[in-house]
Amino acid sequence: MGLPEVIRVDKNKCQHCLACILVCPVKLCNIVEPDGIIVKADLCIGCGECIKACREKGHYARSGIDDFSEFLSDIESGVPVGILVAPAAAVNYAELMPNVLTALREIGVYNVFDVSFGAEITTYLYLQVLKNGAKQPIIAQPCPAVVSFIEIYHTELIPFLAPTHSPALDVAIWLKNQPEFSHLKLAFLGPCLAKRREFHDPNTGGVVSYNITFESLDNYLSEQGINLAELEPSGFDTPEAERGIGYSQPGGLTDTFNRFGIPFKKSDIQRIEGPQEVYTKYLPELKEDILRSEAPVLIDVLNCLHGCNVGPAITHNRTHYQIDKIIEKRKKDLIIKHNSASPERAKNLFKDFYAWIDAQDIDFSRVYSDKSSNKHLCDPKDEKEEEQIWELMHKLTPEERKINCSSCGYGNCHGMMLAILNGLNHRESCKYYLFKENERNLRNVEAQTIEIEEANAELELLNDGLEQTVVLRTQSIRNLLDNAGQGFLSFGSDLLIHNEYSSECTRIFNRDIHGLSFPQLVFPDDIEQENFLKSLLVKVLNNSDPLFREIYLPLLPTEVTIDSRVISIDYKLIDSGNGIESYYMVILTDITNHRTLETEIEQERNLLKMVVNVVLNYVDFNQTAKDYTYFCEARLQEILDNKATSLVEKVTEIFRHIHTFKGSFGQLGLSSVVANLHNLETRIEMLKKNLVSHELTIGDVKEFLAQFSLLTWLDEDITGLQDILGRDFFSKDDELVIDGNKLLEIEKKIETILTPVECKILIPELRKLRYKSFDLLLKSYPEYVANLADRLEKSVYVLITQEDQILVNPDRFYGFAKSLVHIFRNAVDHGLESVDERLEAGKDEFGKITCSISETEKQICLSITDDGRGIDAENLRNKAVDSGLRTMEEVNLMTDEEAIQLIFDDGLSTKDDVNDLSGRGVGLAAVLSEMNKLGGSVVVKTELGAGSQFYFCLPKETEGGWEVTISELMQPLVDTTSKFMLEQTDLLVTCEDNFQVERLKKIELNKVTAIINIRGALDIVVIVSFSEPVLRKVVRNFILDEITLEEEEAYMEDVLGEVVNIIIGNSLKQFPGLEELLIIDTPISLSSEDALFRYKDSQIWGCNLQTELGNISLNLVMPRGTKIINK
């Protein structure tokens, strides 16, 4: 039996979220199709739960269907229509309900009736049915969704449905029996969608022609511009109900029924509401109760939780408290109006009306139909068919078939299985299936990967034709795998995106891109770039020459910014052949995080380089900072106040200072102050141009400079330095104050962040800051030896000597230096004789202990010598045997030199007794242990009566110093000079292939020679000489204006200095990380004699460059002691 539709589905809005199935009490009325979930009307009960769920999700794919358009059309055609207003209108419109009645009349409705009065009739009819012995329990049926559910899904309960109509139909039947209303076509206005089923059911006789929802009426009033608040209120054309107005609320029937005073127990009239309770629990259980004869008398049942007042077509959003308050107030007002507060008055209310109904013999009876034939769903024919469905769902075990996660909406896996069997859903709606399918796909991908690897192994054995076939197949699979998580799109000669593209493209461009122009997507706000990309793409696509494509493809943009995201673009030209047009395949990758990380790392690198530069060149930094502070606080004002200079000269001098400070701070790597100074330079250049043309005054210049907080520009860089080096770094003006641990932290950061080349340059330089002279580790011993000698009543001279300065890591050598206390103590206690013994032996009464420190290329040598009694080798042999440290056989085989070494054995002492100074034989063993930690060696020489010497050799710490060859230093100078001369003067430069070294015999210093000193990680002097004709050519190109020979002569020195700065600066850029670690001094002028004296012990590496006008000489002066590597 076909049923009218009550639910409309907009497939364009359906998101396949399955929420509609999840809340649907009957589930199987929903059919999942590829483009949306539709509703099968014959199985739908019209409860409206799916509409609520869809709206809560924000999809609005489902809405109700009513008869409003037919209703409106008939009114406009002049058909007399009366409308029945549901009790829920009192809640939906609250105080504006009387105005709604007026609005209905203005639309064209003849009469307006209150369905609440029909509720009074319905309650009376239920009472008569009970008195006449109707079959119990009686299931009240004001709710057509409940009726449809029983007629389709639980037909066993049909005999228990109330044999009378709902309040709406009861009042409609009564009206049709009134002469003044019998000619009207009746409409129903309410919150219910299922009422359309009731009114179009043949069993209700077509008494009501239209079902109208609050939603449809409100939309119409809004479209027509009708404001309810501006209308006059009006009333109903039927008698006013009393408690029947509460029928729209749970328990409303019960409350009205109790008015008749029939003595029922509370359990005899049960109140049930809400789809989950009514359909999935109560009604199925009711059948069991009836079989046990334990059912109630009357069941007050409503589909909607909290009743009709919150039906699926309401337009209000009131709380349950507000709803209850409205209903209670209306009920109270009507009880007062009817004077029915007392039980007796309530019982006899409408008594005459009911008597009239009985006298009229109006037929209010209702019959129902078995519609179970609509449920033409089948169960599996046999166990085999059921197993096939389970296998399709990847549910092979009983446990898997009872997961019941409800993600499909059916509440259990069995329901989903039946839905798939009946074609109502597909397996992709099962989350467990998708999980298993993903596992299977992953295995397939792994298998395909293995297959690809095997195919690649076979490629070598196949001919060229087969190789091409396999390459194409492999590439096809690789394209699929490689582009996961990337944007993939394609387009042809029209540059419009093809229909197939990955979802990542939608995320990147934040829209559907099918049919859109690729150049416009990439450059939405730059028409010039867009047009350039268009022309280049078309040009490359239309030219099949491989060489042409190889040249032009790299010109396509490979990195763009789209909506603040950095996107990498990779282009591939696909030549399909067989007459098919070639096209582009483009792969887009979001590399925003990668670029952000690179920027952060670069900032950290720059900060670290700045810190190291300042540490290594602290004196320069400190002086420059002082000079800058003085300039800001005083010198700037002095320049402005100088009456002897013009305004142009003042601004020029200020610009020169700013430029100098920018260069000085730039060499130290102070990025913040340099950026500010560079910006100020640009602004001053603009100011200079306006000085004359705008007739500016000194006041204007001061006002201009007042805009800039010059004194604070160093703060950001200094804060960065303090964060890493500590606050103490700046505690002393002219002294570097930095904690050793801070230096270690900086070393670790350098190793983590900087390149290996930079690490090789920087780490040795930093380590020098925490090294100490070796003799400082021994400075406490002279006093210690003197005090010990006084205690032992001996006289001793102590002398510690060291060649030059020998720097060591104090942390590495500390333990060894401290252990030497045993050598010095033994020399005083055991080695030196008393004064009397020395005098008796013909020695000076003052003993001597000498400590000398020297170094070789790879070792530090330490000698401790005394002129005492010496060490008796035979005595040592006997002591070793007596102590059990050696056997007699072992010591007899030892030479005297070997026996002397026994002195380092743990537990061996040359003294017979033990005191607080010595005698336990552990001291020299400790010295040996510390020496071994350093990888050193020791030789002991002794002569009885003459003294002993302990000679230690300790390996130097390996620093991994940075080395650079002469050719590596010279070649960038040659290349940069050649390029500069060609660009600036059009002079072609040639040079010799090798670099020569020679001692300076004579240096010609004049206006065509510049000397510039480079300090820091590299310590060299560069001397550049130009032939005079060559330099004059450079000057003319620099000055641009026509100048005389005398003016050329005057400019030569300044221009040469600037040229040398440019050449050296550009040369050093070819050493990654080196440029930031050097200080380039200003070119200087020296006399020939001064230069010869200064560089007399140095080596000069030179190279001569030739031009058509003369020569250019490049020379590197290497300081004394520099390790020279020439390759």
Shape call: elongated
What structural category characterises the helix and strand content?
alpha+beta
Q: What is the mean pLDDT?
A: 83
**Overall number of domains:** 7
Number of beta strands = 29
Poorly predicted regions are none
Percentage beta strand: 5-15%
Structure description:
The chain is of the alpha+beta class and 1127 residues long. The chain folds into 7 domains: 7-63, Alpha-Beta Plaits; 80-362, no CATH class; 379-429, no CATH class; 483-590, 2-Layer Sandwich (Beta-Lactamase), CATH 3.30.450.20; 600-769, no CATH class; 772-871 and 910-955, Heat Shock Protein 90, CATH 3.30.565; 966-1118, Chemotaxis protein chec. The protein is 46% helix and 14% strand. It has 43 helices and 29 strands. Strands 23, 24, 25, 26, 27, 28 and 29 form a 7-stranded antiparallel β-sheet that branches. β2 and β3 form a beta hairpin. The two termini are 101 Å apart. The mean pLDDT is 83.
Give the topology, please:
Layout lengths: L6 E3 L9 H5 L6 E4 L2 E4 L9 H8 L5 E3 L3 H9 L4 E5 L3 H5 L3 H11 L3 E4 H17 L6 E2 L4 H10 L13 H10 L8 E6 L4 H5 L8 E6 H11 L27 H7 L10 E5 L1 H17 L6 E5 L17 H19 L4 H5 L3 H10 L22 H10 L20 H9 L9 H29 L4 H19 L4 E5 L11 H7 L8 H5 L4 H16 L3 H7 L6 E4 L2 E10 L8 E8 L1 H25 L1 H24 L5 H22 L2 H23 L4 H8 L9 H11 L14 H14 L2 H14 L2 E2 L7 H11 L3 E8 L4 E2 L1 H10 L1 H11 L3 H6 L5 E10 L3 E8 L6 H10 L5 H5 L3 H5 L22 H11 L3 E7 L3 E9 L10 H20 L4 E2 L4 E3 L10 E8 L3 E7 L1 H12 L5 H24 L9 E3 L7 H7 L4 E9 L2 E9 L9
Helix pairs in contact: 6-8, 18-19, 24-25, 24-30, 25-26, 26-27, 30-31, 32-34, 40-42, 41-42
